């Protein structure tokens, strides 16, 4: 309808390429334009000025011989002041951009190891953007942004990387668990040592209290009962303790006891054995003292003989 009245409409964010008898004449901005077709004027085509995106998947090899697929997203747009170049100089803009992306990625990634490729993806994107900006500006296009959105190694490589990561984390977890068990054992040993120390103090105090009680009992009994000796008092105390022990064994329903032939008269034998042992130990130390003085004297005599 617009052509019938020699008028055309150009939408916003678009420009129209006007030709006269097949020759480029001018770029028409958005709006309404007079186009007398009877004079050989026509619209050769329309060009969008919006930002467009092209996703490129490029397979290449890293320095450590791992094949990866690099996914790059190129955001570009045509420049209004160079619309004629963008319309006439390129027949397929997307394929042209894709070729430059392939060239830069396959020149950059083989210089890097796999881990470095992941770490330096921004550098790869910058290299692609610089190369595209330099090449596409001649054709009237502006590169708005270049992104490396994904780096996909082979499936077997990804599985191996995951296993390596899992093994490292398991090793770290095992070390932490072993360290925790070590701390528990140390704390347990410290607790046992402290418990035994306190138990030893309690036993020592208990024995000291028993000794003090026996001493007080012997002294009190000797003072109150004339004609008794300390030996008589100790024999009576041992017999009393013997009966107390037998009473406790018989009263406890859960006690494990070994019965051997024994009688109250054995207490006297036990006391005698203890006294004989103390007397023999005292004599042994006296003999050791005499022997030591003898050795000292012998040494002094030998020294005198050597000096003469």
Radius of gyration: 54 Å
Number of strands: 8
Low-confidence stretches: 300-308
Q: Tell me roughly what share of residues is in helical segments.
A: 55-70%
How large is the count of helical segments? 7
Main sheet: strands, sense, barrel: 3 strands, antiparallel
- Give me the secondary-structure category: alpha+beta
Strand proportion: 15-25%
Overall geometry? rod-shaped
Main sheet: strand order: 3-2-5
Distance, first to last CA: 152 Å
Summarize model confidence as the mean pLDDT.
78
H/E element string?
EEEEEEEHHHHEHHH
Could you explain the architecture of this structure?
- This protein is an alpha+beta fold.
- It has seven helices and eight strands, in the order βββββββααααβααα.
- It has a three-stranded antiparallel β-sheet.
- Strand 6 and strand 7 form a beta hairpin.
- Helix 2 crosses helix 4.
- The longest helix is centred in the middle third of the chain and has 70 residues.
- The protein is rod-shaped, with a radius of gyration of 54 Å.
- The termini are far apart.
């Amino acid at each position: 309808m617009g052509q019938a009245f020699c008028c055309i409409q150009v939408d916003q964010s678009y420009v129209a390429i006007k030709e006269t008898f097949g020759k480029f004449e001018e770029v028409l901005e958005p709006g309404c334009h007079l186009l007398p077709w009877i004079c050989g004027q026509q619209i050769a085509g329309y060009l969008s000025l919006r930002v467009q995106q092209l996703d490129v998947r490029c397979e290449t090899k890293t320095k450590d011989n791992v094949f990866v697929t690099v996914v790059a997203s190129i955001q570009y747009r045509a420049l209004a002041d160079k619309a004629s170049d963008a319309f006439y100089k390129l027949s397929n803009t997307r394929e042209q951009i894709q070729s430059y992306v392939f060239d830069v990625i396959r020149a950059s990634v083989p210089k890097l190891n796999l881990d470095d490729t992941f770490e330096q993806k921004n550098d790869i994107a910058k290299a692609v953007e610089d190369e595209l900006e330099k090449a596409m500006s001649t054709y009237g296009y502006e590169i708005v942004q270049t992104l490396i959105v994904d780096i996909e190694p082979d499936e077997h490589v990804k599985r191996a990387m995951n296993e390596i990561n899992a093994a490292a984390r398991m090793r770290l977890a095992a070390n932490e668990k072993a360290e925790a068990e070590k701390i528990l054992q140390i704390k347990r040993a410290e607790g046992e040592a402290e418990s035994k120390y306190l138990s030893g103090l309690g036993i020592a105090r208990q024995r000291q209290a028993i000794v003090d009680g026996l001493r007080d009992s012997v002294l009190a009994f000797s003072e109150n009962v004339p004609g008794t000796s300390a030996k008589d008092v100790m024999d009576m105390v041992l017999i009393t303790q013997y009966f107390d022990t037998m009473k406790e064994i018989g009263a406890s329903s859960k006690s494990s006891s070994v019965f051997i032939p024994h009688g109250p008269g054995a207490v006297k034998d036990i006391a005698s054995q203890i006294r004989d042992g103390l007397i023999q130990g005292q004599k042994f130390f006296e003999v050791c003292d005499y022997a030591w003085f003898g050795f000292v004297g012998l040494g002094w005599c030998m020294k005198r003989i050597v000096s003469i």
